[in-house]
Amino acid sequence: MFQKIKNIFHLFQAIIANIFYCFPSRKIKIIGVTGTDGKTTTTTLIAHILKSSGKKISYISTVKAQIAGKEYDTGLHVTTPSAFMIQKFLSQSVKNKDEYFILETTSHALDQYRVWGVKYEIGVLTNVTPEHLDYHQSYEEYVKVKEQLLKMARIGVLNTSDISYLLLSQKSKVKSQNYNSKVKIIDGFSSLTAFNKLNYLAAYKVCQILGLSDKQITEGMKTFKLPKGRFDLVYDKEFKIIIDFAHTPNAFKVLLPAIREKYLKEGGRLIHIFGSAGLRDRLKRSLMGKISDQFADYIILTEEDYRTESLDKICLEIAKGIKKTPFLIIKNRQDAINKGVAMAVKGDVVVITGKAHEKSLCRGKTEHPWDEYQAVEIGIKYKIKK
Q1: CA angle centred on 339, ends 335 and 341, rounded to 5°
Q2: Pairwise CA distance, residues 125 & 178, whole Å
Q3: How far apart (Å, rounded) are the C-alpha atoms in residues 63 and 221?
Q4: What's the CA gap between 343 and 353, in Å, rounded?
Q5: pLDDT > 90 fraction of the chain, expressed in percent and rounded
Q6: Which long-range contacts (CB under 8 A, 24 or more apart) does 108-113 make?
Q7: Angle, alpha carbons 133-135-139 (nearest 5°)
Q8: Domains of the chain, with CATH numbers?
Q9: Which of 15, 132, 197, 270 would suit a FRET pair with 386, their CA atoms being 20 to 30 Å apart?
Q10: Do 37 and 223 contact (CB within 8 A), yes or no?
Q11: Taking the model in full, what pTM does it have?
Q12: What is the distance between the alpha carbons of residues 101 and 66, in angstroms, rounded to a whole number?
């Protein structure tokens, strides 16, 4: 009931914001990207291809926003901004005479009417895996909320490889374009992991719909660099360190084997450092432990925005899924990173997941400054001193 009241308030805000900024989404083509995983990569890739093709664009992603030529940091815990901020950014983009605006759109933003009034040209659904079930109550409900983007868009772009496709009632009711893992058009990008291949295919389909040629799309893809904190190799000497935003069971399922395949040679170990957010979906915790248990050789469980929940409890719930892999619980994230880096030897890979680009770490009710990249640097210095 409380959430419904809050949503009514968000709707009222969105209506006022649209009126105040004169419904800017009607004057620009907006591409919305939603999904459990892959939103940020797909959003920034679409933006990069369009920009490389000479189009004027703005975009908002989890990592950052580029609006009318200016860059803004969005590295906190909210992907899609407030209704007023969205309409303000759209208005600035329109004044800049941009042709396209790419908006990473979360299920929370859809459910809370933060994107009410936004006229989407294309809506992309990358995938839907069990996540945020503390908020959405069930997987089926989560899919329905994500599906709202398709209903709001003139054209839907759907991943037929994903299990959510079977639950989409709108796939026959909206003008849709589909893609799946069997498409061969980007096989030339042989260094892509399986999950990034799908992100590239989604971006390819969107740009194709917008009228770009195959050459324009592939040329743009060739110069694209993954967003900060996505499969990010930050140290590559006698051992390797990778930072990734993965924080769901599905993300672990695609990330960890990809790391093993690409970077681990015989004798090398995968050391996985991660936690799980407090006051969020508890059901995923043991699954995350289970998947890490399948692919990691050593696990260090630590904090990840535990908020007002017991950190010990969170770590123990993750540990329920760990059956064979040795693990430690080190509550302080910096100490956990120090330990993981210190124990790494030649041929090992240390992968740190869950925070990536985010600039704060929530302990209790306080947001503390946090920089995962700086934490790695500290960990390396700590190892050298030892």
Answers
A1: 115
A2: 10
A3: 19
A4: 17
A5: 77
A6: 108/80, 108/132, 108/135, 109/79, 109/80, 110/34, 110/145, 110/146, 110/148, 110/149, 111/7, 111/135, 111/136, 111/145, 111/148, 112/6, 112/7, 112/10, 113/7, 113/10, 113/11, 113/14, 113/83
A7: 35
A8: 2-222 (3.40.1190.10), 232-385 (3.90.190.20)
A9: 270
A10: no
A11: 0.90
A12: 10
Distances in whole angstroms, Cα of residue 363 to Cα of each of 281, 332, 368, 381? 17, 10, 7, 25
79 closest CA partner among 29, 123, 39, 119: 39
* Side chain identity at residue 245, one-letter code: F
Q: Is the dihedral of CA 324, 326, 329, 332 positive or negative?
A: negative
Rounded Cα gap, residues 261 and 73, in angstroms: 33
Determine the angle formed by the axes of helices 214-222 and 39-52, rounding to 10 degrees: 120
Q: Over 60: is that where the pLDDT of 66 sits? A: yes
Summarised one tens digit per residue, pLDDT across range 11-63 is 999 999 999 999 999 999 999 999 999 999 999 999 999 999 999 999 999 88
Average pLDDT over residues 238-262: 94
DSSP E strands, the chain: 29-34, 57-60, 64-67, 70-73, 100-104, 120-125, 153-159, 175-179, 232-236, 240-244, 270-274, 298-301, 327-329, 349-353, 360-363, 366-369
Tokens 């672990």 belong to which residue? 252
- In this predicted model, what pLDDT tens digit does every residue of 263-317 receive, in sequence order? 998 889 999 999 999 988 898 999 999 999 999 999 999 999 999 999 999 999 9
Which pLDDT does position 98 carry in this prediction?
98
In this predicted structure, what is the pLDDT of residue 238?
A: 94
Separation between Cα atoms, residue 45 and residue 224, nearest integer Å: 7
For 68-103, the pLDDT digits (tens) are 999 987 754 556 789 999 999 999 999 999 999 999
C-alpha span between 119 and 264 (Å, rounded): 46
CA distance 58 to 30: 10
Read off the pLDDT of residues 145-182 as tens digits, 9 standing for 90 and up: 999 999 999 999 999 999 999 888 776 667 888 988 77
**Among candidates 219, 226, 191, 194, which has minimal Cα distance to 204?**
219
Strand partners, 367: 362
